[in-house]
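hiii so my PI (J.) wants the whole complex modelled not just the main chain, which honestly fair. so below is everything: two entries, each one labled with what it is. i double checked the lines twice but i was tired so who knows lol
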Amino acid sequence: MLILECPYCGVHAEETELHAGGEAHLKRFGPGSSDDDFENYLFMRENPKGVHFERWRHVNGCGKWFHAARCTMTLEVFGTYSAQTTEPPKDICDKISAKRPGWSWRNFS
Amino acid sequence: MSTRIQTGGRLIDRTKSVTFKFNGRKLQGYAGDTLASALLANDQMLVGRSFKYHRPRGVVASGAEEPNALVNMGEGAFFEPNQRATTTEVFDGLTATSQNHWPTLEFDVGAINTYLSRFLPAGFYYKMFMYPRAFWKHVYEPFIRQSAGLGKAPKQKDGSDYEHFYAFYDVVVIGGGIAGLQAAKTAAAAGAKVLVMEQTADWGGRAVVDGAEIDGASADAFVAATVAELQAMDNVTLKTRMMGAGVYDHGYLLGYERVSDHDPSLAGPRHRLWRIRTAQIISATGAIERPLSFAGNDIPGVLLASAVRDYLVNWGVSIGERTIVVTNNDDAYRTAIALKQAGLSVPMILDARKSGGGALAQQARDMGIRVENGKAIAKVHGGKRVTAVSICDQAGEGVVLDTIGCDAVAMSGGWSPVVHLYSHCGGKLNWDAEQVMFRPDLTRMPTNQNGQGFVMPAGTANGEMSTAATLADATARALDVVAALGKSAPTLTAPTAASEDAAAIEPVWMMPQGANIKLRMKSWLDYQNDVKVSDVQLAAREGYESVEHTKRYTTLGMATDQGKLSNINGLATLSGALNADIPQVGTTTFRPPYTPISLASIAGSARDEVFQPIRKTPMQDWHMANGADFEPVGHWRRPYCFPRAGETKAQAVEREILQTRKSLGLLDASTLGKIIVKGPDAGKFMDMLYTNMMSTLKVGKCRYGLMCSENGFLSDDGVVARIDENTFLCHTTTGGADRIHAHMEEWLQTEWWDWKVYTANVTEQFAQVAVVGPNARKVLEKLGGMDVSKEALGFMEWADGTLGGFDARVYRISFSGELSYEIAVPASQGRVFWDALLAAGAEFNVMPYGTEALHVMRAEKGFIMIGDETDGTIIPQDLGLNWAISKKKEDYIGKRAQERTFMVDSKRWKLVGLETTDGSVIPDGAYAVGEGVNANGQRNMIGRVTSTYYSPTLGRGIAMGLVLDGPDRMGETIEFPKVDGGSITAKIVDQVFYDKEGTKQDV
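here's the output for the full assembly
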């Protein structure tokens, strides 16, 4: 029963208000892409013990999709941010670096 | 015998007697009794039978940890199995029966299992029921099913009410003993909003039973004063009969309040589930005493030493006249002393420690009790009741030194802190070898969203065993919590208690230390599931090293008590057998709830019509008044058909179809999803959503479209109307509206967020009616107001206007193959519009029809239905819908996936029509078989039916199905075996059975 702050409406929403949407920052591969790229995009997902970036939707609230950075081990939430970006914002990465020095996730660190 | 003694009993009111029934026998107790204490007061020691061997079982504990005293409670709509007698308060009229025996508690046939126990070792089920394979269905499974379960399943619907309650606190203290109360007082004094919950009806915990002294007065006085102080504070809520059931992520806590279990005459719900969010939790849950593992430790009359003391002090009940105490620590001496003070006989204290006990041991000796150091129980004698105890050296192999008559044994193997709530959300433990217990590691606490610890153990739950240390720890831990909340520490004088001179506990995992196999086979670890020391040792010999695997193999700790008494002893036995350290073996996972909570409390008030509200169209009242037979579609209830008096459903469907095809039918299509997509980039977005080219659709026109998931699979279909240059209206399936709207939003918000598009789900804004049949135009012309001629409003066009005074949007689309108009009016006018159509259509004998007629008519036309022809593995190409897939577009959702090798495989089953050779109807879900057999010796499958109906129009069975090479096999027959033997042959035909040219809909 996580609590995440919706970055759009500011509500500290409980999990029952939210819908989990899997891994964040996927790059879409469409027609013309290689089989490997497409397979990676459609099926391959991170399953980290530690820092993770996820998509969530404030479905029983303002309806907006957003991103959350959190630790899958300790349930600590490093921050939530707009879904309309291709990478985590610097202030959140800095916050993670302060708490989990040396972290990396896909090509972010 | 166990009986009520003349004096004592802090919790009972001897002026108020209550009458209750156990196994049909009327018994007396006092207000304040638990069912267990009242039964014991009536010498009802035998309370049940064990699960596997059906051994006689008596009460062994006095609280939530009780494994044996489980009873069927109540009757009829208020019946509930597996209720613990030790946590059930008696009331006038209580009815209980014992469980797991046949025919009676005293004489049980299943007890034969105890003589077969050599043949029922650990893992028996896994070993025994493997072979021969054929025995499973008719011999093994019926046998296991008959033996499974403890209590009976309720036969009636639960007659009580339940509710949820949401609450928010800074600090929740779980446990109302001296540590919990002291911690609550400290946190409350700092200004925190505090809830204190105690699972029993009374405050004080163990300290009040043990007669501790605090601040120079009795613990009772300290508890009364502290409770009064807390009650007077506005920022404190006190709750008894409420258990901390589970701790979850980010300070979520379930509190289980038993509101009226103790007095069913009280108004309100029976149970209330508190769904709490709190910044900090203080777990002051105390400790549970461990049994000792000696032969016969399960015979009724052998109890935990603390339980013997509880029954005596709290309820004035003596377990026996002669009680032998056996221990490896000082605490059990308190039981001997209390018994002696009450005038009962304690023939001997067996202290397994060679060096014996401390101050309490001296006190016992001074009272004239015989204390034997380094001695142990070799064996308990008795069947349904303890009769004697044979004693031996703890260090030896069980050579009997003496046998002493007694009718009760009070045992103590030390104490285990209740770390369950601390551990639910990931709190880690350390093994404290000195105190022989697992205790919380405060450096590895469960953490909240800020990375801060949020479950603080305090007092005995934190491993502090003396009164003084418990109080000091409760204060200190509460101050930690106050600091974590960012509040300043209050000025309080901490209560004090005298330090106790106790000798150290010594680990005793087997009694005697060198017990032979005969003794070990009678030394119980888990009473409820009949797991013995020998079983765990056998599991270790057979290679079970993980404590989690051993648990599942032997069923140790898997009973309703979840190993509250057995886990530590079990894992210590395992570590001994593996020659490993206890911390290396570790504990099994602590999972919520702490003790079982009622399923009904989890449902709360969400049952019957409240469980899932039904969505209703504006015409629902008419449907109900006119005898509609409803079926669930999504959250809607749609009329399946409208049977008339004396008509079967099949007859009604047939009438509805024939009259619609012949003259005029009406369908309430309001549930159809309606989503508006609007904005400068709407066309671009629509081209991505649909497989078709939607951006070229002209204003005023409609087009049937397909939507796929990014996996390529067909997800939804429907007619799109272009409203203006920037606006589309998308019709979705009834069940798909919310899902498709969410799908659109997901892509717009997370992938194409720079596109200027808005969506709105307007499904419930409009009532929609399909006016269908050769007379459809006539009835609309009769209503008048707009030109609905073929010239003004052609097939697959739409127009706004007024019809009979109603603001209407009219779509000329057809799902039945007939001349058809779908008319949307504002939802508020839906019912009057429906009535107007019925009135105007009367001269054409208008026929409202339901979903089944809709389905049959679309199947006659060969139209697909999402969920029938599709199942999440079907791509549009499988269904011959290539005409609806744009070849000009570079991209759409699912396009890349449909290029994958197995998606373009020519061997994918393809949709065809099926015509049975004898005119019968192929059963739903039937498979077609071809030549040869597969690896399992089954006929090879070459296809399956997706839709199958009796067609009233054609007077025969028709079907659609997916068939291997189907479209290339037109005219061939294939075979569909039936469940009851025999088979149906069907000819592969074109899927359009009715009006192939489509002339009827385009007139």
